[in-house]
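PROTEIN SPECIFICATION:
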Amino acid sequence: MDQFKIVEIKQSIYKNNDIEAEKLRNKLKANNKFLLNLMSSPGSGKTTTLLRTIEQLKDSMKIGIMEADIDSDVDAKTIADTGVKTIQLHTGGMCHLDAQMTSEGLDNLEIDDLDLIVLENVGNLVCPAEFDTGATKNAMILSVPEGDDKPLKYPLMFTVADVLLINKIDTLQMFNFDIDAVCDRARKLNPNINIFPISARTGEGIEAWTNWLKAQVSEVKK
């Protein structure tokens, strides 16, 4: 028996995605649910970061994961092995999710008993930033090997993100990566962005990130 459900997501019929996103966000708030939209480039360590996050939080809250991909279930299988509720969202070639697709995924995930829901969005720094999913908060991952110029190349992603996770800091000595420059560039685009340098491989910095998540989940339950 499969460990998780696979949901074939169809293109949204709604023309005004922003309206649908706000409706979804209000619905989540009314039901005291926290949805995190997690975005990054391929290879940034998104799934590994998610595994570390689950490891830190699964004993204190109930977690559900929606794994979005164009046509693959590799990451969903990896996440499902942790024991958290998991579904796979196939986008049918589309490089992003919108609010209607996200809502359809939430319906299939069955979130009534969940405290934290994470949408692992399709891997790229362009399309996912352009479509509001209706998530409570947006987080993005930038890994050290990608370079410190990404806020200059992909400003919208840094503008819409509530959190920037700078991953693979254990490799800083191997790359010409100026972490202070990244932080400065990100904050010029988004003064309110929360920045957490982490290493998903070693676990460095993960506690600060998960403490932020716990505070956000607690806030929606008030």
User: Anything to note?
Assistant: The chain has a mean pLDDT of 92.
